[in-house]
What we know:
The complex is a heterodimer of chains A (401) and B (103). Chain A is of the alpha/beta class.
Amino acid sequence: MSGVVILGAGECGVRAALSAREAGYSGPITLISEEAGLPYERPPLSKPDAAGVIQKPICTAEMLRDKDITLLDGVEVAALDRNALSVSLSSGAMLYYDKLLFATGASPRQMACDGAERALTFRTAQDAGRIYDIAQPGTRVVIVGAGLIGLELAAVLVTRGVDVSVLEYAPVPLGRNVPRLLAQKIVDRHLAEGTKILCGVQVDRITASQVGLADGRMLDADLVVAAIGVAPRTDLAASAGLPIDNGICVNASLSTDDPHIFAAGDCASVLRGDTRQRLETWQNAQIQGDIAGRNMAGGQLTFENPVWFWSDQFDLGLQGVGQTAGAADATRQIDAGTEILFYLNDGRQLIGAIGLGSGNAVAKDIKLAQKLIEAGVPVDAASLCDPNINLKKLLRPATAA
Amino acid sequence: MANWIDACAADDIDEEDVIRFDHNGRTFAIYRSPDDEYFCTDGLCTHEKIHLAEGLVMDHTIECPKHNGQFDYRTGEAMRAPVCVNLGTYPVKVERDRVLIEI
């Protein structure tokens, strides 16, 4: 009997399975996971405790059993036959689908220099376990890539007493998704804690004990970690003839051209207006998984949500929502170490906000910003700048209307 | 035997807001609803032990500041992923402008 088949059992795939069931889908639901074991959350991998990597399950075996969801773990998909509506697995089994979801995520980009194979990546629980085993106090670790993930790992290792150098090809760290003002505060904190950060450098080769830079410098390294971003996992979709454009192309309902096939999460390139957008955040994986699950069960939802993300660096908490590119239109200084930048469109509607502070100091306002974005209510920059004005007040006229 | 603890002044909590209250090594969240009622739950989110008092109260829900899990703070019911375990709730009364909780 054919049913819903979900490729990938991360945050997105599991959410899709649960949501399809919640939406009333009564046929078989099968989750296929390349990794062995129960699905687990990835964010805690960069937040280990004293004992090492924290593996936090997304769901229990009982939960899956209760919802009549089958998990096939430690299995790869060998082939997809869109005419027969079937997938064949590495185990030899064949599954027939009525609806198929690509929730295949993304895989870390590999380095291309000599000795690149010596660099570990940082994506799975197994990766994290290897890194924390080697990176003991007093060891020297070189992290390539000063993005959020590379710096999160650096913060954790420096706190452990590891000698950490972070190398960045670009002129500044965090250039891709954090405004300069906030990025600089994160960098300053890293420097104060002892992280070494080298920008504008290129790795030429990796040897058994060193990293060689293009400018001739050599850095000692007991461990090299490549944190240079991820690439969407699209090989199977591409080989089955589905359109790919930095991800598997889907419309706002997360359906591909083939009405039987959906894609969601890190691997999906979603049409929003005239442009395609691919997002790599935990909440996006959840939201898109939920929408895809419900649509596979016959729903008519579209993905329009502003997406939220967070990063922990030491005890600093960064949170952002929506579009935060370019110059901010308003800055709210909550106290000396806590501020939020707001982004407006021409109609004075909020389209994005991003803030940095100690712990969860910006969380409440970022949540309210998300609600303001969704409400689409015009706001004035002066109110956003005034920390004594509760953002809830700006929201309420809209919800009362 | 009821054990009522004086937690705070009624005015210490803004309307539609929450504060943290620690007592004997335990931590609680005390809420004042938009209709001016008071409630008390466990202080930590059931997902990753984050203090809920740093989260956002909207109507009768509290949203965890970290991963956006939501609870109905009147009943403790887990309302939105990633939370799936309910919060414990505790009786509350207001006497002479003091908020008392029974724990």
